[in-house]
Amino acid sequence: MIKLIASDMDGTLLDAxxxxxxxxxxxxxxxxxxxxxxxxxxxxNYQEARAALDEVxxxxxxxxxxxxxxxxxxxxxxxxxxIPTLKTATVLDILDQNEIYYEVSTNQGLYxxxxxxxxxxxxxxxxSHLPHLTxxxxxxxxxxxxxxxxxxxxxxxxxxxxxxxxxxLKVICFHTEGPRVLGPVGKEISELGDLAVTSSGxxxxxxxxxxxxxxxxVAHVAHDRGIELDxxxxxxxxxxxxxxxxxxxxxxxxxxxxIEVKDYAKFVTDTNLESGVGKAILRAISENL
Length: 289
Description:
The chain is α/β, with parallel strands linked by helices.
């Protein structure tokens, strides 16, 4: 019997408006009423994830930054898994050498060196999840996102690394040419060791500590709740979801998921534009998966 549900957000829980549909919200509440805990497991930081949940009045625990930080439903940080400072500096060296734009999520907030590149990169990410949108529409959505999210723009992210109280939790990198450029760079970063390099879209790679993965975080939360992994359900669409699809007893890939990601899931639901998360939750409950 399902006791815990962990869902990705972008391309999964969120629809074309980057919001949680009424159907998804209703299914989540139905699960909660049935005694099943729902939580999100996202590459987003806390603020980004919280905004969409607040729109529909959902309070839940959150795995953020791919598992680098976990929060309880009241917003208290339970634990973090940072990337060592020296390793972060080496990662940034590789990205700078390849002229790749990046942002750094830390325990003190999100940092970027360019607002213009931030908008362009976020618009490209939106476009990869919602290909029916025009470029102008993705730019508008990316600009609107800036108004909701506090981003710290600095001249040099490297200077921040001198602060011993700062912990780097994730580095996300963007390039408009996608895998052609990011593939070799991701491989080079992986070879540094002790890092997990994943992706939440065609135009990005995400770098975390090897122990900061959604699957590890889901297993940790389940253990704390006294829940067996066979009683955990995971839903996702992209490569940074694979680790939790692998550990969960019940796993759903979205209809819009990458083909390779579907191979890791036991079931496939409808797309994020068709409230696939809600349908997966109701199916799991009705069929006692």
